[in-house]
Amino acid sequence: MFKYAIVKKVSKTFQYGLTSSKLGKPEYNKALIQHSNYVEALKQSGLKVRTLEIDNRFPDSTFVEDTAVINEDLAVIANLGADSRKGEEIEIKKVLDEFYDTIESIVKPGTLDGGDVLRVEDQYFIGISQRTNKAGALQLKELLGKYGYACSLVKLKKVLHLKTGIAYIGDNNLVISGEFIDNPLFHEYDLLKVDQDESYAANCIRVNDYVLVAQGYKKLAESISNLGYPLFKLDMSEFRKMDGGLSCLSLRF
Ligand code: GLY
Questions:
Q1: What is the 202 CA–ligand 1 centroid distance (Å)?
Q2: Are 34 and 238 in contact (CB under 8 A)?
Q3: What's the pLDDT band for 74 if we cut at 50, 70, 90?
Q4: For the chain, how far is it from start to end, CA to CA, in angstroms?
Q5: For 199-209, what is each residue's pLDDT tens digit?
Q6: pLDDT for the residue numbered 249
Q7: Residues enclosing ligand 1, CB less than 6 A?
Q8: Ligand 1 centroid to 188 CA: how many Å?
């Protein structure tokens, strides 16, 4: 069970963030409404939400998940892979200091974005991506290994982050799309395969009893619902334009 979430207000420079989506410029006011609905869903799922103030120096800083990897034992501060995002982690470290006795950091030459780190029970999968390099992944593997967590590295081919295409929603159920479907690393789980036309929705999150899914992806929503999970369906259009998804918008612990 999670107790807390950390989120960060959408910066006024959001439209200048990193993206490969070619879906156009995000509408700021719409993004604010979508963010507010997201926070409300976290609260309805039972979380106390800490909202960090806006920081216009960092267009992508609302995607707070990339700044750290956290679990019940420790927090690991990321060394973000994109130059324009380096520094976002400084504020997060200060906040996590209030919650954690043990805080470690990924350091040069390692880079790592939290979006590349998927936890499945006591197993972690770490994506080697445009943002996370092997040195960063191996540092995280060593840190988590001290606490008994096993780690497997997954080389990404197309998607930005590992969690762009895969999510664990509990009870051995893995939501999986695209390049990951044929990867034998994931075949021990019960796979909910996401059709190509709904691939964006693969980035969903389990928060206590609920699963938060992007609105408008009916097939996946139905598959998850059929497993008995209550859903929050959230409009994510403006975050999608900036390559962001549901997991990216919070740190949950
Ligand atoms: N816009 C999210 C990212 O590229 O990190």
A1: 17
A2: yes
A3: very high
A4: 8
A5: 999 999 999 99
A6: 99
A7: 17-19, 60, 63, 82, 242-244
A8: 30
- Compute the CA torsion angle 78, 104, 95, 248 (nearest 10 deg): 30
Best substitution site from 63, 203, 246, 249 to test ligand 1's pocket, by max atoms within 8 Å of Cβ?
A: 63
Which numbered atom of ligand 1 lies nearest the CA of 113? Answer: 5
- pTM, whole model, 2 decimals? 0.97
The Cα 208–Cα 234 span in angstroms is 17
| Token pair belonging to 80 | 């973000």
Q: Is 156 in a helix, a strand, or coil?
A: coil
Beta partners for residue 211, in sequence order: 206, 231
Instruction: Identify the residue whose C-alpha is closest to ligand 1 atom 3.
Output: 18
| 248 in catalytic set | yes
Burial profile 191-208: b = 16 or more Cβ within 10 angstroms, e = fewer: bbebeeebbbbbbbbbbe
Which strands make up the sheet holding 117-120, listed edge to edge? 117-120, 123-128, 150-155
Is 161 one of the annotated active-site residues of the chain? yes
Name the closest-CA residue to atom 1, ligand 1: 18
Average of pLDDT values for 127-156? Answer: 98
Q: Which of 13, 19, 249 to mutate to test the pocket of ligand 1 (most atoms within 8 A of CB)?
A: 19
Q: With contact defined as beta carbons under 8 Å apart, do 217 and 207 qualify?
A: no
Instruction: Please answer whether residues 126 and 101 qualify as being in contact, where contact means their C-beta atoms are separated by less than 8 angstroms.
Output: no
